[in-house]
Amino acid sequence: MSKFVNGVRFGAAFRWARAAFVKNILSFIALSVVVMILQFGQQFAATPFTETLSLCVEAGGTGETIDSTAVSSCFESEMGQLLIVTLMAVVFVIASFLATAGVIRGALYVTLGRKIGFADTFTGPHFGAFALTTLLIMVIFVAGLFLFVLPAIFAILLFQFAPFFALDRGLSPFHALKSSVGLVRLHWPLAILVLLFSGASYLISGLFWGIPTLLFLPLASLVTAYVYRSLLGETVDPAA
User: Residue 220 in contact with residue 197, Cβ under 8 Å?
Assistant: First the structure.
């Protein structure tokens, strides 16, 4: 972490990412399709859970007093379905982490000039470190939302490179978070630009049934991977 490079520009990162995406378009679309399908799966699994919750709340009555016995009986009768739905949600979340890791790993491979292999992108090393780091960031983000939103945004800014450290180098979650903070602290303006681009990409990806995911998820990962490598003083393989 001692070697940093000044002069890394967002425009150069975006141009490189665009060229890299075009050069590896079929591989990145295949990886992103998996993410998109799993996102639909998460929504599908969440719907029955929400419906059951609403049903049991309504069973307790809508007046000032709530019939706790009716609510309890409702949940007991629906427990089997809730367990199945919960299990499905857990499976989809884990699979979604795996798929997202595949896209990020693909971006990291491209920075090194490696070809993207669909199988080894998903089965490569350090997935456990990546998943734990991502979960920790999610917990911190949710906690920050309860503190008037700004702390959540600040946390995402500081920790945006942590999943890359975890997946690329196998760092433990806390070490990955610390390394990301060190990188961002020395390059605030560039880090803010990368976060704005990534945030806009993920927001757009959620529109139109998730179809923009095919373009914006790989671009966001490629831009971040380029900046990550460059700020560490590592050589990025020319994409075009």
Answer: yes
Residue 188: name the closest of 17, 15, 4 by CA: 4
3-state helix, strand, coil in the chain (%, to 5): 80, 0, 20
The amino acid sitting at 48 is P
Residue with tokens 């427990």: 79
Residue appearing with tokens 């367990």: 83
**Burial classification of residue 96, based on how many CB atoms lie within 10 Å of its CB (0-12 exposed, 13-18 middle, 19 or more buried):** middle
Q: Is the pTM of this model over 0.85?
A: no
pLDDT tens by residue, 91-116:
666 677 777 888 899 999 999 988 88
Q: What is the C-alpha separation between 154 and 158, in angstroms, rounded?
A: 6
Burial class (CB in 10 A: 0-12, 13-18, 19+), 190: buried
Neighbours of 91 (CB within 10 A): 14
Nearest-5° Cα angle at 110, 108 to 114: 105
